[in-house]
Write a structure and sequence with these properties.
The complex is a heterodimer of chains A (about 110) and B (about 110). Chain A has about 110 residues and is mainly β. Chain A is built from no helices and 11 strands. In chain A, strand 9 and strand 10 form a beta hairpin. In chain B, the strands form 3 sheets. In chain B, strands 2, 5, 6, 10, 11 and 12 form a 6-stranded mixed sheet that branches. In chain B, a hairpin with a 2-residue loop joins strand 7 and strand 8. Chain B is globular. Classes of the chains: A mainly beta (about 110), B mainly beta (about 110). At the A-B interface, strand 4, strand 5, strand 9 and strand 10 of A face strand 5, strand 6, strand 10 and strand 11 of B.
Chain lengths: ~110, ~110
């Protein structure tokens, strides 16, 4: 079965640094998402992306966050100036026209902000 | 608002034991309900779903019934295997919102011993 690929699997950064988390969604999918899970908490929606623009974002997704699909295959999440509380597992997901019926998730990037 | 409350883990069972993982939800509309599973080192995968009241989702021996009267979607399996060891996530999709936004629970870690 096709899969969503995320890199790196682990990222360690210093507070205040910029990080870019990378995702390669399934090739014929049209809708892209980022979720995150802080240790011990719920998996939380960050943002959805369709037709080269943000469809919806949560209250977590503030000005420090941005997403981009730079080349038609990659889908990135940038955090401009990381905070300690950004430490979490970040999941990328994609779906086809059926959208909500089935999301395909990557295995996640564990971000640790020191 | 929308939220999912999942049974606290971890859950440890012997092979062939009966499994129940409780999930209750709060939703503003008429949600679809999902169980996702995450095996070690992999992304979240859709295990089963139900889109309306009294629907039963099933897959790989797992079942869950959409109970509107009790706002529940408990996951069950009659005889677990070692290979079922994973983290299980209950989720809802409020179809009134932008497609693809899921509300997850915290996840329940299941470990099955031989």
């Amino acid at each position: 079965e096709p899969e969503v690929t995320q890199t790196p699997s682990h990222q360690v950064t210093q507070m205040g640094q910029e990080v870019i988390l990378r995702c390669v969604p399934i090739s014929n999918h049209l809708y892209f998402y980022w979720y995150r899970q802080i240790l011990g908490q719920k998996v939380e929606f960050l943002v959805s992306f369709y037709n080269n623009e943000i469809s919806e974002k949560s209250e977590i997704f503030d000005d420090q966050f941005s997403v981009e699909r730079p080349d038609g295959s990659n889908f990135t999440l940038k955090i401009r100036s990381t905070k300690l509380e950004d430490s979490a597992m970040y999941f990328c997901a994609s779906s086809d026209r059926q959208g909500r019926e089935k999301l395909f998730f990557g295995s996640g990037t564990q971000l640790s902000v020191l | 608002g929308n939220s999912v409350t999942q049974m606290e883990g971890p859950v440890t069972l012997s092979e062939e034991a009966f499994l129940t993982i409780n999930c209750t939800y709060t939703a503003t509309g008429y949600p679809s309900l999902f169980w996702y599973v995450q095996y070690p080192g992999e992304g979240l995968q859709l295990l089963l779903k139900a889109t309306k009241a009294d629907d039963k989702g099933s897959n790989k021996g797992f079942e869950a019934t959409y109970r509107k009267e009790t706002t529940s979607f408990h996951l069950e399996k009659g005889s677990v295997q070692v290979s079922d060891s994973a983290v299980y996530f209950c989720a809802l999709d409020d179809r009134g919102s932008t497609l693809g936004r899921l509300y997850f629970g915290r996840g329940t870690q299941l470990t099955v011993w031989p």
